[in-house]
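Quick one before lunch.
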Amino acid sequence: MAIERAALTGFAVDLGGTKLAAARIESGAVVARAQVQTDGSATPESQVAAMAGILDAVGFVPGAALGVAVTGRLDKSGHWHAVNTGTLTQIGGYDLRGAILAQLGPATCCNDAAAAALAESRFGAGRDAGNFAYLTISTGVGGGLVLGGHLLESANGLAGHVGFVGSRFADSQCGSGRHATVESIAGGRAIAAAARAAGYGPADARAVSEAAREGSAWAEAILYRSASAVAALIGDLTTILGLDAIAIGGSIGLSEGYIARLQTAMEAEPPLFRVPIRAATLGQDAPLLGALTLHLERLPS
Ligand code: BMX
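Model of the BMX complex:
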């Protein structure tokens, strides 16, 4: 059952490819937040210890309501797998739900973009949309689909991983094992790699965004190519799902100028295949709010 935002009280943790964040949430508002950098090469046990540590920093007490969002897929049995093994190098089928239950108490574990999609659909940019997609452009390109009010899920946890769809803009090997995916040309790791290949290393995606803001043509070209690949993906998703709206999140997606680039690139699509593109209104808190929402909505009443 869909809950009201005001009913959101508890804790949430969000382990992304770049940052690990935790929040204490009271009546739908984030009242305490902590954030550190993610260590993508840490073992799953160390990742859980880092989650416990950051939850401690926001006042978590084991047993309190808890939602856990992670980059990567969560299968039906609660096992956690990296899809892009370049982002999390040690995560290949770890019993995350079991480890969290043992160390922190009952919690709901889910994909970070799926959680954000649910939150944006319930309380943010997708409130008026029947069929809605959320895309995060960050370390990777993640996605969540809320169709007719229901978050699309699958037994293997891969549903919604739209960054691994093929792209005509790409031509390199993706860390997922697929060739020429959207993520392999549009995500933060791809943006940083393109900057390095053009001789501007060791620039990370944030430095590329900064360079574009200051007017560097090379940085603008890299970001416009990323936006073009995402715009084509949005056209494909609109075709398959008849989307009413799409929200964009993630550190790159929400960086200055990115949504404007997307809107320009979207003009290459015929009008029927376009959809309103909005910024995620919950910003970087969307995965945190969504993970707790999912947890509370699934508690037996
Ligand atoms: C990748 C994939 C998704 C994730 C998305 C955005 C991995 C490790 N991650 O497509 O599960 O939702 O990135 O997450 O395979 P980010 O926060 O790591 O950018």
